[in-house]
Amino acid sequence: MPLSAGTRLGPYEVVSPLGAGGMGEVYRVVDTRLGRQAAVKVLPRSLLEHRERIARFEREARAASALNHPNIVTIYETGSGDFGFYIAMELVEGRTLREMLHTGPIPLRRLLPVAAQIADGLARAHEAGIVHRDLKPDNLMVTKDGLVKILDFGLAKLSYAEEDRNEDSRLATMTQATEPGVVLGTAGYMSPEQASGHPLDFRSDQFSFGSVLYEMATGKRAFARGTAVQTLAAILQEEPEPVGSVNPKVPSMLRWIVERCLAKDPAERYASTEDLARDLATLRDRLSEAVASGSGPAESAAGRRRGLFAAALGLAVAAVAAAALLAGRQLARRPPPRFQQLTFRRGAVSYARFAPDGRTIVYSAWWQGKPLELFTTQPGTPESRSLGLAPADILSIASSGEMAIALRDHPSSGMLARVPLAGGAPREVLENVGEADWTPDGKSLAVTRLVAGKRWIEFPIGKVLYEAAGSLYRARLSPRGDRIAFQEDDQIAVVDLHSVKKDLPRMRQASGFAWSPSGEIWLVNIIGGNSEILAVTPGGRQRLLFSVPGELTLHDVWRDGRVLLERGLPSSEIVGASAGDPRERNLTWLDGTVLADLSSDGKTLLSTESGAGGGEAGAVYRREMDGAPAVRLGDGRALALSPDRKWALALLPTNQVVLLPTGPGAASPLPGGEIVVRSGAFFPDGGRVLLTGNEPGHRNRLWVQDISGGKPRALTPEGVSFPIATNPISPDGKLLAVLGPDRTCSLYTLEEGTISSPRAIPGASPREPALRWSRDGRSLFVRGAGSPARVYRLDPWSGKRELWKEFQPAEPLGGGSVDSIVPTPDGQSWAYTYSRYFSDLFLLEGLK
Q1: Alpha carbon 165 to its chain's center
Q2: pLDDT tens digits for 771-815?
Q3: Range of the domain at 607
Q4: Is the four-CA dihedral 428, 430, 431, 433 of positive or negative sign?
Q5: Are residues 561 and 581 located together in one domain of the fold?
């Protein structure tokens, strides 16, 4: 029952009720000793039997009275009487933020001062080790003078208060508020970790504050749903509608602050609430003049129009200035990032890593046409010193100075070895390793492996942490050793130690990445021949660090933010020869021409322009072998040419498969379903296509699709594929010569829509794909493994093979190689892609 006027609580006399909350009722009182007005919060007698609530109520007093800040309500004392326990505190006259929000979003000129004060008060509490745990508009009072007071620390938790440091953390009075599984707080403003009953820290309050700030800016609750359960589910699984979509007038800086506070992962919020408060204060100070010029109720429409342009200009200028300050950048004072070249010889770099001293750099490279070798260098020294090891790549260097290297002349082509940087013989550790990275303490390794056609990440060695559906590139441990960033096909992702994987935003062409000291992933994204250096959080938020023309690859990031970058000069050319004229001619069109197909009569080429000339999406071209000008067919990556040469099968960056007419006509998209397409070929009848692709979370398999409509149908088990620029279908359409899970070519028989079990091909070796069938269907053109590139005629029944042609790069320096090779079925014409790559290593300083 509410207390009536005149009731005494120790020295306090009740005047009138002020309100009630989950932890008690609040009254206006008079301190009879001092004659001052105050507020008293009383725990109802009905709850006195709940000892944990009484203990929590007492903790509110201890927590709040330990604080002394203008934005936190002042606690006078605590006591008990006939009506129960109570807390006496200063009386705050004003309105709650909830009352202010009844009319909709709060204007910026009011919002920013209020938000900055809330953040400042929270920062003081968090500095004292106190987490509020129930921050919401109802617990925020604003006086007539605009002073903000944070109320109700009834759910506060002492994270490391002095009196508790030596106590058992599992005392009964503490567990109910701190142990996992107990949900406290108000549903619509809880953090994800609070909603799921996990342990909390100060970043939970940041999320709650972000929900309040979202409501202040938009007038809408961030996660309000029909029921409390639905609201909690939204907090855990959904993102609120973007602030800018609800209220386009909100400056971008404020939107970014809200988004950062509302990050699901606490690691992506502010490292300290003081930083949050500083950002809001800076934004308030920089935008105050602009927002103050906004129209008031009595301002005329003409006045509003006259001030519109000036206000908009002021906001834009202020926002730019605030952006620089929020990021901690003095743009006018900070020098631009500086590049320093580290290598000078002709060839190409493979891998590069910082040594433990942060100055020595170890890299692997092909110089002057010689085999792969390990070198060391230092900034300011043009010379590099060979480490005298067998052909090997540097994968990682431990803090102890021990290197993890991959021996490239080993039969497995991926023997992981350990060797001291100071010198010594390599000690072999593990076969079939692609990438490896040391833990921060240098005691164990995370590795990627290819075993029996399966690709996975092991961490520690021997424990499969994640199995990939596609190819695996790179694997880099986070600075804390609790996550691994890796690349699967063209997607960068992060997996934690519980095997939970999260994809980062898809890049146009990711080219190397490493963890930064702050826990971001710094990467290079190549778009249309330009390189963007991006910082991406594990949760997917990204920012641009630097942009430069040309193609870069990021190899490593040191603890002070210095970056090892490789500047590449790639080129892709098409060389071909026609029947009756064995002389090869260069058929390159722009700066990155890649062969996709050659018509059966040897007269028409289909290619992709993959460099700057092809644009961000790439471009599909048709060109005649007689050297006539190439014809652009459309965007995307070329896959195959139809038997009648009227259609080109292509793949758009959105993973949409399309048919592009080679002459008059319109593009025709094919229903793609859920598969990620890798390669494609036409059946001899021209009415169907064979695709290599995978469903999310699964490995590649073969699919068949009718071009007249319908979704692709799975044809084979997982692990079966064929490379781009090959056609594995026999002339009668009944046999498929494709790579199985062990990467060895096998035969499948097609009969009335069904497919047989694979049959091994005698004489076939691993990593030797079938390029084409002969015209009579009695032999295969098979590319042999290794270099130089050799193509054989192989009888798939007897295993007899004979050399058809050898292709030798014209300039083997810099990793020059023959890539896709396409012969005609009669073997009289052919074309191939010849790629060359030269690169230098650079040190980049000054990124933030």
Answers
A1: 39
A2: 999 999 999 999 998 778 999 999 999 999 999 999 876 655 555
A3: 570-839
A4: negative
A5: no
